[in-house]
Inverse folding.
């Protein structure tokens, strides 16, 4: 089974082909583009397929990051994964960005994964030493996140780690596309549907005061 992994949940836009039988990334493509995921994603999917020397119809599963992260980016990735899943007749699974960041650390000790959510907020989640989720994903103000980080002895990882430790600017928010692929290959498609993980509502809200009364 070949896994096509997609990540558009942050500023990066990445795709990779992964063979779980050999635990090998066959090909990858992408870049930190900031915006424009919808315009560039399929270009990177094609680039990953070319690098792997694999035809799209050889793909047996789609794995996609579901957030938390960029509202628009998540929508782009999840929509693409669902569309490819339907077109190819293969399952698609959703991979949490927080879980992927924890998996990159390979546990061994309790972890607190913290991502910079901008606007003075932090996405966070705790993981046990064996890598299992010890708390649900959540969002907190920077002040509350600092208090959460001070509560235990967890190792602190993620784009907001330096912000919580020293108050220094956050690092990049990207996850490893190889890790997304490896996690996606193991997940149960029935239990991990590609559904956006939104911990904060969208910026755009209906302007109720300007609604036009229907006849």
């Amino acid at each position: 089974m070949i896994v096509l992994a997609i990540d558009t949940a942050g500023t990066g836009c990445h795709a990779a082909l992964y063979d779980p039988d050999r635990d090998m990334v066959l090909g990858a493509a992408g870049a930190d583009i900031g915006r424009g995921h919808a315009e560039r994603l399929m270009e990177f999917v094609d680039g990953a397929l070319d690098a792997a020397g694999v035809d799209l119809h050889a793909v047996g599963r789609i794995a996609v990051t579901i957030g938390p992260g960029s509202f628009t980016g998540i929508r782009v990735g999840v929509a693409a994964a669902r569309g490819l899943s339907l077109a190819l007749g293969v399952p698609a699974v959703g991979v949490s960005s927080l879980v992927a960041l924890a998996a990159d650390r390979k546990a061994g000790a309790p972890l607190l994964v913290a991502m910079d959510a901008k606007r003075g907020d932090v996405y966070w989640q705790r993981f046990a030493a064996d890598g299992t989720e010890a708390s649900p994903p959540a969002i907190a103000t920077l002040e509350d996140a600092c208090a959460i980080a001070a509560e235990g002895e967890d190792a602190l990882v993620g784009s907001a780690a330096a912000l919580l430790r020293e108050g220094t600017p956050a690092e990049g928010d990207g996850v490893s596309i190889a890790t997304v692929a490896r996690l996606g290959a193991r997940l149960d498609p029935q239990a991990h549907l590609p559904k956006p993980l939104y911990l904060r509502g969208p910026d755009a809200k209906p302007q109720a005061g300007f609604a036009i009364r229907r006849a």
